[in-house]
Specification:
By secondary structure, this protein is of the alpha/beta class. It has 20 helices and 23 strands. About 0% of the residues have low confidence.
Length: about 625
């Protein structure tokens, strides 16, 4: 029995981190991305209190993180890699091949899916990716179960020598539950890489045999009795009908049936391993039930494998084919499936969205975006994934696709206009410092080689701000905060072949706009090419950033004409509009005293006074 003193209230991501440590994982690599970020952060926190010798790193991108963890598993050690669902797209190349070549020590691939989506460019379902790769996936329904599944995933990985995906979703990652701590395990393994070119090198001649072997592994996993969906039996009230659910949809269905007084009335199955689905279970469904309600997020992975003529779910249209399966939606599906009266049926009105998200007060990106839009009102502005995506509110972000795509898209816009032979609009690309390291460097090299005359503004705020301030390579810090060698961005930019490189604090809007115009002139000159401006100012959410920053007292004069330009076009949360006086006012609670708003006012009614460092 567990000592109550060892029971802690943990976020799902913290529970997964605890599972890694308790299962004897010796290496964990990740790239931050909501909803997965806190897993590695929590690992670092646990290791500070309970050192195990585990190596952890924030990798430059997910592909690299996967390859680092994969090589570690080749030596016989337990390894893990953590990312969000769209991060698996970046890691797809090594992921797909590793299914064929397999692993030696357990490799757990933690991929956090984002049904909804809440903070992603799509809501893809990693279970279908697992199906494509022929890699087993485990689907937890609670934080505690996610912790337990880590050890199960390692055992399964080592038994069949394949990577195993653990797939929590946003509601699992960020919900909390009491979790009983277990002792950490030291498996005592020493790195021992056994050379086997037929496996680890695997030229095409070897691949058919490896594929045949992989098929055999999947068949073995599909026959594992421990992975047969668990039944909460009914009492025969609903003969010939059952409910099959996985992940958080199972947890919600369980609670709803209990609340409706129907738990124990209808057969309810929990699918813990949605791929490969247990073969015997598929046969049972076809022989025992005429109707099957399948509840799963996000795509119809279980429903399609069941191939049951009486299955109802996302593929059949009985359940919405997109978005989260909220308790309301699951309740409606259960009500219909069980033939219950639809009390108070009807579509609930959507709550108001409230104020739209905005860049923080004093954010240096706001100053950069305002200068870009002011300098090139008819420009084209590709941007990227990060908090700076909110530059769209300022009219300075026209496209956002995926990590690093902005530079390539900027080049595409340039070539599309240039080939027409007329005036080419100025193309200003914005990309964050972390995103530049992640996927921007190859795109910049390509822009140089292909002579794409674009301006690239690297928004260097010295952190990965959107996901919680993880270190970036040019800051010289490791995941645990210890120092390491820094990789300066200017030297990287020059190594990419860029001849025009300038640096500027975007708070100095006059100088920043001067550099933008100068860069545009360079791009259009006969000897020109891509131009890069490094917009350098630390993120103000990092309190260390404000220690040496000059701070002004901001005042709105009576001469304010209420034109709202400072609110509608600059959109600083610290500037509000007083409907009574019809003038702008400064919120002292929100204002950071940066003073960037002063030149925004067309009648000079915003003034800054003082200017002392903090």
């Amino acid at each position: 029995m567990n000592d109550n003193r060892n029971v802690k209230l943990l976020m799902g991501n913290e529970a997964i981190a605890r599972g890694l440590i308790e299962a004897g994982c010796t290496l964990a690599a990740a790239y931050p991305g909501t909803p997965s970020t806190e897993v590695l952060s929590a690992v670092v926190g646990f290791l500070k209190k309970e050192p195990t010798g585990m190596y952890v790193e924030w990798s430059v991108n997910e592909k690299i993180a996967y390859e680092v963890a994969l090589a570690s598993s080749y030596t016989g050690k337990r390894s893990a890699v953590v990312m969000k669902q769209v991060g698996l797209n970046v890691a797809a190349d090594p992921f797909m091949r590793s299914a064929y070549l397999g692993v030696k020590g357990g490799l757990v691939v933690i991929v956090a899916d984002d049904p909804g989506p809440h903070s992603s460019q799509n809501e893809q379902d990693t279970r279908l990716f697992a199906h494509l790769a022929k890699v087993p996936v485990l689907d937890p329904s609670s934080p505690a179960e996610a912790r337990d599944m880590v050890a199960e995933a390692f055992d399964l990985s080592e038994k069949y020598q394949v990577p195993v995906i653990l797939r929590p979703t946003t509601r699992i990652c960020h919900s909390r539950q009491n979790v009983a701590f277990e002792k950490t395990v030291d498996l005592g393994r020493k790195a021992d890489f056994e050379k086997d070119p037929a496996r680890w090198v695997a030229t095409p001649a070897f691949l058919p045999a490896l594929h045949r072997e992989l098929n055999g592994k999947m068949a073995g996993i599909a026959a594992e009795e421990s992975l047969r969906p668990a039944l909460t039996p009914g009492d025969g009230t609903y003969p010939g009908r059952c409910v099959v659910a996985s992940g958080i949809a199972y947890a919600n269905a369980y609670d709803l049936l209990e609340g409706m007084g129907l738990l124990g009335k209808v057969d309810l199955y929990q699918v813990r391993c949605p791929f490969p689905l247990h073969e015997g279970f598929i046969g049972d469904m076809r022989s025992r039930y005429e109707q099957v309600l399948v509840l799963e997020e996000t795509y119809s992975v279980v429903e399609l494998q069941l191939a049951h003529p009486g299955a109802e779910g996302r593929a059949s249209g009985a359940v919405p084919g997109f978005g989260e399966l909220t308790p309301d939606l699951i309740g409606e599906a259960l009500t219909r499936f069980l033939g219950l009266p639809a009390e108070g049926a009807g579509t609930a009105s959507s709550p108001g969205r409230g104020k739209r998200p905005s860049l923080c007060a004093g954010c240096p990106h706001r100053a950069a975006f305002y200068s870009i839009k002011k300098s090139f009102p008819k420009g084209i502005f590709p941007s990227d994934i990060g908090c700076y995506t909110l530059g769209m509110n300022l009219g300075a972000v026209d496209t956002v696709h995926c990590m690093g795509a902005c530079i390539s898209q900027g080049a595409g816009f340039y070539h599309a206009y240039a080939q027409d032979g007329g005036e080419v609009p100025t193309v200003v690309v914005t990309i964050g410092d972390s995103t530049f390291f992640h996927a921007g460097i190859p795109a910049l090299v390509n822009a140089v080689v292909q002579d794409a005359r674009i301006i690239v503004v690297i928004l260097d705020n010295a952190t990965t701000a959107m996901t919680g301030h993880q270190p970036v390579p040019h800051m010289g810090l490791k995941a645990d905060g210890s120092p390491t060698r820094a990789v300066p961005i200017p030297e990287l930019v020059k190594a990419c072949g860029v001849d025009y490189l300038a640096e500027c604090d975007p708070y100095d809007t006059g100088r920043f706009e001067e550099l933008l115009r100068e860069a545009d002139g360079y791009c259009r000159s006969p000897e020109g090419g891509p131009a890069v401006i490094l917009s350098k100012h630390p993120c103000l959410m990092d309190k260390r950033a404000t220690l040496d920053q000059e701070r002004f007292e901001i005042e709105v004069l009576d001469s304010c004409i209420g034109c709202r330009k400072c609110i509608d076009q600059f959109e600083c949360p610290a500037i509000e509009f007083d409907e009574t006086s019809k003038k702008a006012v400064i919120s002292a609670d929100l204002c950071t005293g940066c003073g960037v708003c002063e030149p925004v006012c067309p009648v000079q009614a915003i003034v800054k006074r003082g200017g002392e460092g903090k």
